UniProtKB/TrEMBL annotation:
It is found in: Cytoplasm. This is Tryptophan--tRNA ligase. SUPFAM superfamilies: Nucleotidylyl transferase (SSF52374). Its main location: cytoplasm. ATP binds at residues 9-11, 17-18, 144-146, 183, 192-196. GO terms for cellular component: cytosol. A motif ('KMSKS' region) lies at residues 192-196. L-tryptophan binds at residue 132. Belongs to the class-I aminoacyl-tRNA synthetase family.
Length: 328
């Protein structure tokens, strides 16, 4: 049984991209791994967040974890800010990292591009992410392609620390379960579907009203060829919609292509709208139950207690090795 760690930022409304690329895998992994699934609120504030929105979105992500099927008796679910060991080890890791390697991170370059004033937190984000992983001795890290560079840096920092202070950290491995799990924007298939995109028409939010979902899919950008065919290089928009269809229906792309052979995009989009709306309805019903029941706070408390227990052991080990006086 391997230890798995992952998280989602409460930086907006969770999307179908977050579901297909992350949450769906969390649900699968919990059955035969020791899982820690966080709501990474400390990461979310590396770009400005409205306090009331951050609070609401953090509770939403936690409730959506439960609604999607993460079982708190199998996996620890917690808020990153409830486990202070993350921030403490995060600080220690900033003393291990170099400016140059942080400057090379493409996410930092993308998120800071064109900004007059760049928050220092955005720059040191990867050292906190390294701490998130290393503080649990996590072995498998489910991440999208975009996070692989940060994981590589985590491994470099772990190696450097081990070399300097003795064998302390386990090397984490990326877990990328299947090809094609990158869901793209509905209005621009060259960008990934993203919850912080200011255009709400570019993503399907897990909490979107079913009527809104149908409308967003009917308005999704497509080419003018009117041929339902999976061809990401030449037909990225329809290929993206086919990917969503396949993930939600469980049908293969070939089966879906055959189903819509000789038809225009209209019927395909209409069926996809129905499919996604029907998929989201029960998830949203469970979500509302979770929010009303108040069970969330117990789940988060239990999850944080378990996480703190594990994380404190590693943090103590790290601090002793670095030469801190330990309390007696
Ligand atoms: N479009 C996507 N397709 C597949 N997987 C995706 N993920 C995000 N978008 C897609 C996966 O969701 C997990 C959590 O992501 P995150 O919230 O930590 O940050 P992110 O990857 O930057 O996601 P967003 O939605 O784009 O957030 P913002 O807009 O706030 O930056 C990760 O496992 C990610 O791979």
């Amino acid at each position: 049984m391997k230890r798995v760690l992952s998280g989602i930022q409460p930086s907006g409304q969770l999307t179908m991209g977050n579901y297909i690329g992350a949450m769906q895998n969390f649900v699968k992994l919990q059955h035969d791994h020791e899982c820690f699934f966080m709501i990474v609120d400390l990461h979310a504030i590396t770009v400005p967040q409205d306090p009331a929105a951050l609070r609401e979105q953090s509770e939403q992500v936690a409730a959506l974890y439960l609604a999607a099927g993460i079982d708190p008796s199998k996996a620890s679910i917690f808020l990153q800010s409830h486990v202070p060991q993350h921030a403490e080890l995060g600080w220690l890791m900033t003393t291990i990292a170099n400016m140059g390697e942080l400057e090379r991170m493409t996410q930092f370059k993308d998120k800071s591009e064109g900004k007059e004033s760049i928050p220092a937190g955005l720059f040191v984000y990867p050292t906190l992410m390294a701490a998130d992983i290393l503080v649990y001795n996590a072995e498998l890290i489910p991440v999208g392609d975009d996070q692989k560079q940060h994981l590589e840096l985590t491994r470099d920092l772990a190696n450097r620390f081990n070399h300097r202070y003795g064998d302390t950290f386990r090397m984490p491995e990326p877990y990328t379960p299947e090809v094609g799990a990158r869901i793209m924007s509905l209005d621009d298939a060259s960008k990934k579907m993203s919850k912080s995109n200011p255009n709400a028409g570019s993503y399907i939010a897990l909490l979107d009203d079913p009527a809104v979902v149908r409308k967003k899919i009917s308005r999704a950008k497509t080419d003018s060829e009117a041929l339902v065919k999976f061809d990401p290089a030449n037909k990225p928009e329809i290929s993206n919609l086919l990917g969503i269809y396949s993930h939600i229906s469980g049908l293969s792309v070939a089966e879906i292509e055959a189903k819509y052979e000789g038809q225009m995009y209209g019927p395909f989009k209409k069926d996809l709208g129905e499919l996604v709306a029907n998929f989201l309805e029960p998830l949203q019903a469970r979500y509302r139950e979770v929010r009303q029941s108040g069970e969330l706070y117990d789940v988060l408390k239990q999850g944080a207690e378990r996480a703190q227990e594990v994380a404190q052991l590693k943090l103590d080990d790290v601090k002793k090795r670095m030469g801190f006086v330990m309390p007696r």
